[in-house]
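User: Structure tokens for both sequences below?

Assistant:
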Amino acid sequence: MNDERTENMSFHVGIMEPKDAPGLVELFRAVYGDNYPIKEVYDPEYLVAHQEKREMYHIIARDPKGKVAGHLALFHTSAPFAGIWELGHGMVLPECRNLNLNRAMTEYAHLKLVPELGIEQVWGEAVTNHIYMQKTILHLGAGVYETGIEIDLMPRSSYEKERGVAGRVSAVLTFTTLKAKAQRLFLPGVYDEVIRHIYRSAPVDFGHTCLEADGSARAEGPSSLRSTLTEAAGVYRVVLLRIGADIRERMAQTEKEMIDQGAVVFQVFVRLTDPLAGVAVEALRACGYFFGGLLPRWFDDDGVLLQKIVQEPNFKGIQLYSEAAAGLLEFIRADRDEANRQMSLGN
């Protein structure tokens, strides 16, 4: 994996070498101070070891003197399916912006590294305190499409060093499907139209068979959940492995426990090949959860994200580049209002 020059011929883009790790730590500090929610990025040995294990590839842009000026990572994600990789942790030194470094690193990832590794599915979270990364990824021309918006994903503190924000920062979900997997999906009635619209808008022939999920079906037995709390970000994520009769009660109890531990954003991932997907969605919406996005091959099978924010979301701080993302935000805001209304009636 050789380095490649950017358009201005003075920077080199390639995979991080061990000698670059301290410079990468300094880049994180220059952009985020000590407030990046994933604290391991401040440990050079961790960065090197993670890459040597092939769990994360660090794509960096070096200036003519070898200084690390930009970074973008391709890494195994928290999704249940090991074959889906995330593209993220993108940043550029303030003095090196407007030099197309983000575009050069993104092109290196999508057009060189991803094919070399034989990756079938890539996803990312493009922050919305500005439109630059959203614009970069959509202009890549590598089959990228938008599927949702994670509301209030990142804490305000992460952005205080260089340009303050008025509240938490949301992110647009982006996906690139290199190999589609045809599935028999059960679409919850309330999200049937928006999910079908996302599929139709994507530059991919998925080959799915879409059926309507029965939201009144009977679930039996206990639910099975796999969960993680990112304390620094205040984000609690739940992968719904089995949809049981107790899903509403389990989530209500979990919320109380996690709020006490600092969680302010709750996300639940539901498998759409499960005939009980509609049951899970109806139960979650009764607890105030609302649409987050479609997740192609998240479980290897496709999934849907539902989310709940403890405080009033920072909708005013969301800046969007595309009309598709603006349409998704409009749907998400309306769905949140309806879910809150249903929750208040249920209480």
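Moving on to the next sequence.
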Amino acid sequence: MEIRTVRAELWSLPLHAPFAISQRIAYTAENVFIFLDCDDGSRSVTGFGASAPVAYVTGETTDTVLAAITAIADKLAGIDIDTIDGALAMISGDLDRMPAAKAGLEMAIFDAWGKANNRSLWQRFGAYQPTVQTDITIPITPPEAAGVLAAKAAEAGFTILKIKVGACEGPDVDLARIQAIAQAAPASRLRIDANQAFSPDAAIDFVKRLSAVDSHIELIEQPVVRGDTDGLKSVRDAIDYPVFADEAVCSVDDARELIERDAVDGINIKLMKSGISGALQIIDLCKAAGKKLMIGCMLETELGIAAAAHLAAGTGAFDHIDLDSHRLLAPVPQIRGGIRHEGDIIEVDTEAIGWGVDVRNE
């Protein structure tokens, strides 16, 4: 079965509410959906993929992703999809510096391969377990509002909360937010995500003050700017909580450097930063080095979450799951299947072909 056409289109999707972190405020989820049409003369399939670029992370925008997909479409035409390696090798070379575009195309290629071969991608990745337990994110918002969100999350069955910090008002407001969340959901475990908000010294001071607020903190994520490996390591060496890298790792080489420097306790893999093939390599690196793994997401729909969940549940490689962005979006009626969720449990459709997701782009 060969690739015939590659189509891409922008979907601008509303959020339930503005989503604020230290680097930006998002009002919509800007995704590029990719449709990979394949046939063998008697049967046709379409592989679905989606790219959710974030400029401050990978330097990409929806415009650059659309342009990249258009530019590579003719090269992909005619490539056999029954064996996946040729198509993956093609985009790996051309999109080496465009990980979000690469991730969306890889997602579509894997989906088409699964459909062409009547295979579940959960099975391809190892079929380790059918479910994963995710956190849910509380953005930068006033403490009182954060407490309300935490209480609602706990009532909905979430036992792990990821808290964004780095408010422009300063660390006192961040600490008040965390305190309000801890009081509203006292049984919850907390993950603190700074999105590069602090200098190394400020991060260390913040975490020391944080220690007096609550004892249910699991980890600190990306406290300093990406590229400051020395600063990241200094924070890790100075605090008692595990330190995870996020924006600092957009490639296999980034992961290798942090591991060789012993600068982190773990790495947050996101498909939009490394693609699926890169994610599998980073998993191998972290496992060999004894580093922990988290899988996260950008502002993605059920399609992107399904792909990440199939990878996480299939490999069983991840210690922490942060796949909640589909909960932040208003319903997207054009997308169905792939995963089911109840409370904080995501269950993949283990009998589905490909990702098990149907995308209607009428």
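User: Anything stand out in the second?

Assistant: The first strand starts at residue 2 and ends at 20.
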